[in-house]
Here is the input.
Amino acid sequence: MSLTQPPKGARQSDQSQPGVPIPKVTMPALTEMKRQGKPISALTAYDYSTARLVDEAGVDLILVGDSLAMVVLGQENTLAVTVDEMLHHTRAVSRAVRRALVVADMPFGSYHGAISDAVANAVRFVKEAGAEAVKIEGPRIELVRALVAAEIPVVGHLGLTPQSVHRMGGYRVQARTAETARELEADALALARAGAGAIVLEGVPREAAAAITAALPIPTIGIGAGPECDGQILVFHDLVNLTFSPQAKFVRRYADASALFRSAIEHYREDVEHRAFPADAESYHLPSSAVRQAGASADSVSGNGATEFDSEDAVVNRDAFEDWGR
Ligand code: KIV
Here is the structure.
């Protein structure tokens, strides 16, 4: 690596001062945030544009979650999404992100067989898609050790693990008894000892998450796990109301993108139907010299600059956009 190369976090963001590089969030930086009592913000993203917005808003961790199966691909649960699909979306997110830690979710089936196969799949996320850590569900202690030995930072995921939907018999809050809460804490400690850098706690009682957070040296990131976790994560589409399902108790909607998009799309359709779009100002015009060269009379150019010229030459190609002001 060249030490003179600008760091990944060199792009200007809304959070930064002009010309001052933004420090990159790393896995050790998250542990340091826990030590300093600074809450960690995390959100999912699945494509370039949303990842860019999330990153520029200063969110610390971006998860390319396998929830994309449901919120982006319209599947019933997270089980069918493939490694190749996850890689495709992780690449798009990595291209956008300068500051946040990019974590890729390992999809169902990609880490449930031989450990060597799971490590090989995880390597693809780092090598081919730019992920800086992978997330795996369940207390897979041996696998976490193997991934860390392969230099791949790991985020664990305990509690309601959506890839276990059939075993759990639905999406149910977990660890609701003193005994299961103790088991959950033991699993979290084992993951931390194996080298996990952080643990997502999903759908567990606030009290259980608080006890685990206090016991662990690494950060907990909660979703439906109460406010005592070291950080919080939500699915982007839930945050902005782009999901078409009933809202879970733990979701807070910060915007209504469905209403915004619907209204924009309906207005566009109406404008097209009423020939109100595009207006002359949104149209390209031939320069008058080109009109003359093509043999059109000056009279064929209307007073507002629009041309009635309709030869093949009037077709605007993409190369002309630059010259004519896009
Ligand atoms: O796939 C996902 O979105 C997750 C959550 C933790 C948000 O795993």
